[in-house]
């Protein structure tokens, strides 16, 4: 049976991909501050709960599942940061390190997850494809080739969009 075509098989799909998803969550959490209250397991569990609460969600393939999971991770981290900031009455920022360990993003930029979310929302008005590329790389850990397949665009377009997005985000973070 094709696990990706049957939404009722979410738990089997998660079981199959759990090691990979947990690895991605661990990478994501390594970018967070050391005293963050979420751990990779909690992040994976929250993402799964969020995904499984969506009625009729069907995944086309592994990349689609991981893309949706990455988007959920982003939403969870942003929500968690907002809750923490609200508890502090707006004080303090939640640091995240934007590090691209997968390829050539050499610059390490300390920032907060809320700023990253705000910048991605702003970037989406300029170029929604760049945002998708960032989400798939940063939150889902996909390679350029996988992103090319998921977004159905050429590999050269993915590379160009990634380069442009990194430059734009770096510039905006350092203003």
Automatic annotation (TrEMBL):
GO molecular function: DNA-binding transcription factor activity
A Pfam family that the UniProt record links to this protein: Sigma70_ECF
Listed Gene3D superfamilies: Winged helix-like DNA-binding domain superfamily/Winged helix DNA-binding domain (1.10.10.10)
Protein name as catalogued: RNA polymerase subunit sigma-70
UniProt lineage: Bacteria, Pseudomonadati, Pseudomonadota, Gammaproteobacteria, Thiotrichales
Source species, domain of life: Bacteria
InterPro entries per the UniProt record, alphabetical: HTH_Sigma70_ECF-like (IPR053812), RNA_pol_sigma-70_dom (IPR014284), RNA_pol_sigma70_ECF-like (IPR011517), RNA_pol_sigma_r3/r4-like (IPR013324), WH-like_DNA-bd_sf (IPR036388)
UniProt record, GO biological process: DNA-templated transcription initiation
RNA polymerase sigma-70 ECF-like HTH domain segment(s): 8-174
């Amino acid at each position: 049976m094709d696990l990706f075509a049957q939404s009722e098989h979410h738990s089997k799909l998660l079981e199959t991909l759990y090691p990979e998803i947990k690895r991605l969550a661990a990478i994501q959490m390594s970018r967070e501050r050391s005293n963050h209250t979420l751990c990779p397991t909690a992040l994976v569990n929250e993402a799964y709960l969020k995904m499984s609460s969506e009625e009729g969600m069907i995944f086309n393939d592994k990349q689609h599942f991981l893309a949706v999971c990455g988007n959920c991770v982003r939403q969870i981290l942003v929500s968690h940061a907002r809750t923490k900031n609200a508890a502090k009455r707006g004080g303090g920022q939640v640091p995240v390190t934007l590090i691209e360990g997968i390829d050539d993003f050499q610059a390490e930029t300390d920032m907060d997850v809320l700023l990253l979310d705000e910048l991605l929302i702003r970037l989406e008005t300029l170029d929604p494809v760049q945002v998708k590329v960032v989400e798939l790389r940063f939150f889902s850990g996909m390679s350029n080739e996988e992103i090319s397949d998921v977004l159905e665009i050429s590999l050269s377009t993915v590379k160009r969009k990634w380069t442009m997005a990194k430059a734009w985000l770096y510039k905006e973070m350092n203003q």
